[in-house]
Amino acid sequence: MHFRVVTYNIHKGIGGRDRRYRPERIIETLAHLEPCILFLQEVDEDVPRSRHHHQTEMLAAELGFSHLAFQRNVHLKQGWYGNAILSRFPLSDVESCDLTIPLKKRRQALLARCKLSVGDHSRSLLLANMHLGLAGPERTIQLRRLLKHPMLAHAHKDTPILVGGDFNDVWGRLGRKVLEPVSYQNAGGMHRTFPALFPMRPLDRIYYRGPLQVHHAFASRTALAREASDHLPLIVEFTCRE
User: Fold this and answer.
1) Which of 11, 16, 173, 231 has the smallest set of CB atoms within 10 Å of its CB?
2) Beta strand ranges found along the chain (DSSP E)
3) 239 vs 242: CA distance, rounded Å
4) For the chain, which domains are there?
């Protein structure tokens, strides 16, 4: 079963260079990539800066996704922003994992079970989408806390798992320190995704565990992707063994 996953910090649909809210750029960028599963960060809901759009529902409608989940992370004066998962396959068991560190910005991970189905074949896949903190010790605590969540901690060793999002980890030390010792592998390498206009830092990652094979991974560097957000989308193509 072949499928494509994209993780993308959309920066509320606000361009990294012109600071203008133009969600059509995000929509066109993602439509061109034809993802099966989307991990999105910095997604607005009913916020004035983004015209009070409910961006998860808007993006799902524009891109033709039938299955979606949104997680409210930060409560603003009006509205929220947080993480979202969009999928062409059914989602169930949607849960939140609180990653907040005292005196730091509220952070959570959004988890879900996805029923991957291609032709006559189907497979359950676990998803975890997150936006980690800015400080190294904070990120380490957050990622270890996520791995202790029952959905991941109690998963069978043959259950495929994807953990992705904005890791805010420039050198990749976090994955080597926390994820790789418990059998997760870096699917996307060290593709630079930030800042979008002149990408220098590989902040966005997808890690996987279980019967998955990576075929291709890249950061989209189209002219439109460089303008749409302050991050570039990271794309990974997988095959799930039956």
Assistant:
1) 173
2) 2-9, 37-45, 67-75, 80-87, 91-98, 108-118, 121-131, 161-166, 185-186, 204-209, 212-219, 234-240
3) 9
4) 2-240 (3.60.10.10)
217: its two tokens: 């991974």
Do residues 10 and 39 lie in contact, with contact meaning Cβ atoms separated by under 8 Å? Answer: no
Instruction: Name the residue with tokens 């959570």.
Output: 108
Among residues 87, 178, 190, the alpha carbon closest in space to that of 129 is found at 87
- Per-residue pLDDT tens for 119-149? 777 899 999 999 999 999 999 999 999 999 9
Look up tokens 């302050």; give the residue.
Answer: 230
Per the document, the length of the chain is 242
Q: What is the 3-state secondary structure (H, E, C) of 90-145?
A: CEEEEEEEECCCCCCCCCEEEEEEEEEEECCEEEEEEEEEEECCCCHHHHHHHHHH
Closest of 170, 165, 167, 182 to residue 127, by C-alpha: 165
What's the rounded Cα separation, in Å, for the pair 223 and 136?
A: 32
Q: Give residue 177's Cα distance to chain centre.
A: 20
